[in-house]
Amino acid sequence: MTNTKTFKRSKTARLIMMVPAAGMVLAGCGEKPVEVQVFNSPDECAAYYNPPAECKAAFDDAKALHPQVAPRYASRQECETDFGTGQCETAPVLTANNTVPTEQTQQSQQSSGFFMPMMMGFMAGQMLNRGGMAGAPQQQATANRSPVPNQPLYKSRDDRSTFRTATNTAVASQPGSTSIRPSAVQPKPAAMARRGGFGAQAAQRNVSSNGG
Questions:
Q1: Which residue has the higher pLDDT, 165 or 204?
Q2: What values do phi and psi take at 2, rounded to 5?
Q3: How would you label 4-41 residue by residue, b for 16+ Cβ within 10 Å and e otherwise?
Q4: How far apart are CA 26 and CA 126, in angstroms?
Q5: CA 26 to CA 32: how far, in whole Å?
Q6: CA–CA separation, 157 and 195 (whole Å)
Q7: pLDDT per residue over 115-127, tens digit each?
């Protein structure tokens, strides 16, 4: 009986790994998934028939959040181990409440001594009037607001096709709409990362899958 249950669990795990990355973050127990949009740039967002102004606003939100949530590394080399050569930048000094100073003076832009990956895309979780619904009533627009904040996305060196949040949660393998669990993608304050840790989950899955 135990062997049968183990086999079923293993089979279920394999099936989950076969689900397309566009729906990677599935609904959890009792949590309703919501629709968000994932893009490389504001122009790409607009090409999907979204209002350009809203695309830019979502991108700007993500860009502002980027230095507050991007994982921190002790050296550029450690960061590039996870994200690739030339894909990391100096992390700015943050204030006591973990935000970038309001006035971006040269002094506030001095190196914090840490490095972070460059933003490689963004998640539009709070865009209104999706699909070109520019003339929708305000009530409908409000109803469409997502509980997922607009936020930056990253791509690890060994998994360039997957968009990931700053907390290393895989959300999609291609631009466009996807469904996610809101609790799985809530932004968190920037934290120190372990070298080789970002994207490691995907690497482990690939090894397990290839190794049988």
A1: 165
A2: -65, -40
A3: eeeeeeeeeeeeeeeeebbbbbeeeeeeebbebbbbee
A4: 19
A5: 9
A6: 12
A7: 999 999 999 987 7
